[in-house]
Specification:
Helices cover 67% and strands 1% of the residues.
Length: 362
Amino acid sequence: MIYNLQILRALAAYSVFLTHFGLYAGPILPRPDAMAFGAAGVDVFFVLSGFIMFVSTAGRSETPGSFLLRRAIRVVPLYWLVTLGLALIALAGLKPIGIVELRPDYVVQSLLFLPFSRGGYVEPLNSVGWTLNYEMFFYAGFAALLLVSDLRARMIGLAAAFGALVLLGLAPVPGLYWAYYTKPIVLEFVAGAALGYAYLRCGAPSPGFPVRRAAVGALAVAGALILGGQAVAGALGADLEMTGFLRPLVWGSAAALAVGALLLLERGGIVLRSRWLFSQGNASYAFYLIHNLMLHAGAKVAAVLVVPGPLRVVLVFVLAFSASVLLGEWLFRCVERPIGAALRRLCDRSPGPGPLPGAVPS
């Protein structure tokens, strides 16, 4: 268990929450997207995913099929439950956030992690699920590389495959899938895998190495990249949320620095002790999937209780964040973990390799 990375997962989920909360905080913000910097939490998740997949499969005789099955057990059940829950809420006429129109093909494509256009945006019924579409795509590509046993060759193959994919995306080829899966953001998985390769090759830092100062410096640079990138974009009148090659270059680099800093701390014997954040790291997937719905519900409740203004904004934050934390913890403990454990036991009854280490699943 890499304790520090669990802490980082919780903080990344919180930062994404801040970005979406910004849409409800318009009355007290200079512009609605002033908290766009929080979207860099997604980049942290992508880098973490690349790192964990590379490290957790190193030295194992994992087959591509077994790997994909175990990743599906980790990702699919809760995502399907939340997606179907949103569909049922929409059918009841309550119109959860972002679902203006509900069609059967929307539901099917959402459940299959296939990108599609809906209301002018390429996103599933659960809008944050666009990141899961990329996760599943990365798993499929990485699974094929499990046939390569040498870690160096596996790393080179991963970098070459995804690098070529992004370069091919520069060609004006029509098609939604082509445009979607060739975006430069996929390079962040490669960055995470590269961290994993370095982590496996390098041991603990030497006794005289300034672990704490180096980690703090890396985190400071990461913060400067995230906030500085947004400031520069705002000054240029551009979208505050990084797009194109800027995203992996700026926010992806920041995410890699943050992950690397916390790995360095733990390798140096410095573990961030917080039972709260560790627990929230475990429940971060559930928190991530439901926080938009909780924001929407919190805004509805606050609109009934408080007149428009700063007090309503504060109430929305308190209600939505508290609900996301509490419901996320409940979903993790009572739904996600039991279902995952039951499915893993079912799979482990058949002969084959054991389950993937559950260190810090993406």
